[in-house]
Amino acid sequence: MDVETQNDNSPNVKAWLGAMRLRTLPLALASTLTGGFLAMEEVSLNGSVLFMTALTTTFLQVNSNLANDYGDFSHGTDNEERVGPERAMQSGAITEPEMRRAIWIASILSFLSGITLLYLAPLSWMIRGVLLVFGVAAIFASIKYTAGRNPYGYRGLGDVSVMAFFGILGVVGAYLCQTGEVGIDIVLPALTIGAFSTGVLNINNTRDIESDRNAGKITLVVKMGPERARLYHVGLILLGCSSFVAYAWMHFAWGWAWLFLAAFPLFALNAYRVFTTREAEQLDPMLKQLALSTFLFSLLIGIGQVL
Q: Is the pTM of this model over 0.85?
């Protein structure tokens, strides 16, 4: 009987894991790790703060993924024309009430985790208040990307949101939670992670351009067209790489701190393949490759700081 129960439940577990899109989590963690590792120039790394920052980021990413599954299904975007992997609600494995409940749970966990992070971080009460506002905004933004009435992801604003929350808030927030203060130059690595993260979204939207256009989902790719979207992607990769080199030039002595350069060939390969690939189905592996390359990049930053 235990075996039968396990077999009956396993498809649903697989559906929930698919809806959470675990392959996107390394990308979300990259902003946390980058901000935390760069803070090691100024302070000793606070492991508890880094863990809570990573946990909060993970909850936010999962919440965004669940809401995206719900929103695209509700708006009819996830249909038989879609090129990417079949979504959980699209397949019928998860119902609308179940997904709404999961989004509420993920939102609450994101909030509680964020509150704990702000309590542990060495911040003034004024900065805690500011970050709390931004944190609540991040929860709201993670849901409103495709869910609800007039979602901003259907108006070509998804790229701006990714840059703001994955890049600026993610990196600067993680750095600030470690050090208690920031300088304007931290915006450069924030632009780096923001650009790479936006590149992942751009690959996704380039892959899905036909189904998105037919469903009325007006992404930036739909507005600019596939050829300009590929040029835009190359520009994002160049922006990400050059921004961090500029930061490193100002902060790092030559040596192990420049180990992050080892990830640049992976970014160059991604830009080349996205630019030259015309078949939508063949773009999907490039999405995962860029996410993992960004995560590796953040790890190399940390290794370089330690060495």
A: yes
